[in-house]
Amino acid sequence: MSDTPPPQPLLDDDALDRLDDFLASERVGEDALDLISSHGYLVALAVAPRELDPAVWIGELFHGEPAFSDDAERDEIIGLLETLKANAVSALEQGLLPELPFELTLAGLPPEETPIGDWCAGFMEAVFLDEPAWFDGDEEGAAALLLPFMALSGLFDDEPDMAEMVDPTRLEGLVQQLPELVLDLYLNYRVPPEKPKPSPRKKARGGRGKR
Question: For 82-89, what is the mean pLDDT?
Fold first, then answer.
């Protein structure tokens, strides 16, 4: 038996269904993220190098204020989004893998025609919100870590550098690794490297000699 714990769901099924119903309703704008995209978006925010003001990321997720029925519904929906994000942080802090809300296979389809592409596009939306934080300091390293999400999102298909990532066999492998890739990003951005312990100072020789 494997000692690897199973991926951790970030919300239970009832909560996901409630979010799905609301985000798919006519009370949110056409440009708002759907459930799958929002899941990727919130996981990226859990990984992000620095915290964003909730007003910023909530506004970007909805692309305008939804037509909430009342303050209680607004608190409920925003609370579910914040809980999903907080649960992602908690799981990653413990070295656990997040459970993604889709099967980890493309089944021969282009990523952009699957929930995988939608999830990765949502993930990249969160990166676009604060690109300097993700890329400053080590642009090459950040690009390498984010390349799988970029390739699977379908947002960069016209970029020449993406050509080598488009091979279906390679993309299928990246899909299988998505939870591990999320954890890798978290460890890169949120867990500072251990500093080497200072060597013990040697006692200086000398001093008073014996009489």
Answer: 98
Any idea where the domains of the chain sit in the sequence?
17-190
CA distance 159 to 123: 18
Q: What percent of the chain lies above the pLDDT cut of 90? A: 71
The model's pLDDT over 137-172, given as tens digits with 9 standing for 90+, comes to 788 889 889 999 999 998 887 777 676 666 667 889
Average pLDDT over residues 59-85: 96
- One-letter amino acid at 39 equals H
Alpha carbons within 13 angstroms on the beta-carbon side of residue 181 total: 22
Residue 18 has a CB neighbour count (10 Å cut-off) of: 16
Measured CA to CA, the distance from residue 16 to residue 186 in angstroms comes to 23
Q: Backbone phi, then psi, for 98, in 5-degree steps?
A: -75, 140
CATH 1.10.10.60 for the 17-190 domain, yes or no:
no
- Please name the helix (run of DSSP H) or strand (run of DSSP E) that holds residue 45, with its range, or none: helix 35-47
| Mean per-residue pLDDT, 17-43 | 97
Q: Which two tokens stand for residue 117?
A: 């592409």
Cα pseudo-dihedral 29, 30, 31, 34, rounded to 10: 90
